[in-house]
Design a protein that fits this description.
The protein has 18 helices and no strands. It has about 450 residues and is mainly alpha-helical. It is globular and about 60 Å long. The two termini are about 30 Å apart.
Length: about 450
Amino acid sequence: MPKQLSSKSIALLSISLASFLTAFTGSSLNIALPAIGKELSISAVTLSWVNLAYILSANVCLLPMGKFADLRGRTRIFSYGTVIYSAASLGCGLSWDMISLLLCRVLQGLGGAMLFGTGVAILSDFYPPKERGRALGISTAAIYLGLSLGPPLGGFLTHNFGWRKILFVSALLGMIVFFLAFWKLKRPQTSPATGPFDSRGAFLWGSALVTAMYGLTHLSTIPGFLLALLGAYMFVLFARSESQKEAPLLDFKLFSRSRAFTFSSLAALINYSSTHGIGFLFSIYLQYIKGLPPQAAGLIMISQPAVMAIFSPFAGRLSDRIEPRVVSSLGMALTVVGLVISIFLHSDSPLLHIIASLVILGLGFSLFASPNTNAIMSSVEKKDYGVASAIVATMRLTGQTLSMGIVTLVFAFIIGENPISPEYYPSFLKSMHLITATFSVLCFFGIFASLARGKIRQ
């Protein structure tokens, strides 16, 4: 029994550290975006691709990596993912121009997909349903701890040593996670999935995602609009192809068998689509419109993830005792309130207004995330944990991609390819108001998707 408890603790520690690592890197780079833009002399639209390149790459690889982990071993794929993520982080820190930076961010996305696509599955392997919410709450809190420490530490490193040091720290943390997972994380006795790996399905999935998302970010142009339509058509081809296979990359019967799985996944997609771009907007708003240095901006932005880190374990434990849809739907409603408050930010808004918006957003998201993940993992069989874990992360990253796509699209229409300089500050504020209003409406409809999932416990 002690050995079993030790394995569970090591699994939770490994997944939590990996969750912290990816969140810390992303939030640190958010605060460093203005410094990256200045050093590499790039426009606001191009700057958004520092985020999009990573998110899109991870999204393309997530589902294949989740399925591959089910077939070949989840802890093995997790360990290899830490190596790739660390190497890519080092490459980002050594990049000499925007192209090399984006290429390394793509590789970093592959490593991130191997972590995202296995982390929740590994925890679900080790922890039974009655304890799973608590474990997921702790690992989710680790994500928010990374999001909390990222802005102030990222601002400190950027201000004193340059933005590249953020990536060097990430590479070091990644190797620590690798050593812990590779030598200490034991494989639980589970029933693995069987059958060949669906390489054709993986190609169709990746091609559809890249085509659709690239088209979305250039929707203001005719080629972009056509690419978005082509991507949608390719998704239809993917669905048809998968429905005819005995061992598909994505078994669509998961959605037809479980209403809870379907609507929980939809709720996750909507929630991330309506919240992820906020960090990007607030980073620019605080440093350009309010004129704050990176460190000060980071200290203000820490209020949102700090609230998440505090309340996520509580929300996870709560979802072990009562229906996750109740907790998640309340969280979605609070998120709508936080988004509506942010619509009314302007150049003279007091700090209390800014912090209130971030705190309410943090509370809402902490009540939504881990209970919603608990609902998804509790609605599938053990052999499908890897794919379900990948679906959780796919909904998150697809939502994040859509969120940044909305930001990029609005920027393209209102600001264009112009850098964010004082003469374009009014245009940025106009863009920010339109984006946050769009996010508010989207998240409002997400409340009903969250409620529609039904009960997961008899």
